[in-house]
Amino acid sequence: LLLDEIAELSLSTQTKLLNVIERRQLRRLGSSKEISVNSHIIATTNRDLHQLVISGEFRADLYFRLNVVEIKLPPLRLRQQDIAELAQFFIEQFAKRYGVEQPRLAYDAMREMQQYDWPGNIRELENVLERAVMLCKQSVIESDDLSLKAFGRDNQDEQGGSKFEKMTLDQVEKYLLETALKRSSGNVSRAARQLGLTRMAMRYRMEKYKL
Fold first, then answer.
1. Mean per-residue pLDDT for 167-181?
2. pTM (predicted TM-score)
């Protein structure tokens, strides 16, 4: 059972999940019958659960119940060597899904992807390539099909440096949320997809920054 963005669960839901894990039983909504469950659980998050435990936002007992084996993955911007293989995988998948000829990735497009910071990590890469497969011409994904240049220009200050260099992590996160919401005309689901977030994670961050 994959539990994506586990840190976004409310404390009340965390309590219910812990109860299911410990008792290995659950009751479906509207039913009075207990059902036995026996599942291996994989929980994912991009937040520091240990710090959330300290701040009281995540139950310590659930954290230790889930944290049997911990695997830390570096962000995509630190794994440029993986981008080509991931890109090829997504292109193949989306070509099959939409019943189109599988496009090839132009050299300039690949170079631009390897130079991009990918704030939304692999989900953002997936979304970018899904759009590119649908919109590319002549079965070739060019740099312009990725729509990454506009984002890069938005992040330059008047001297050509990055706006992010003088910003705190919270300020950067809020800026990215505001930018995504603006580009999606306030559509939360669309903005979440642009950032590689679940809708629940997007809502949590909007409440955090009062957006």
1. 79
2. 0.57
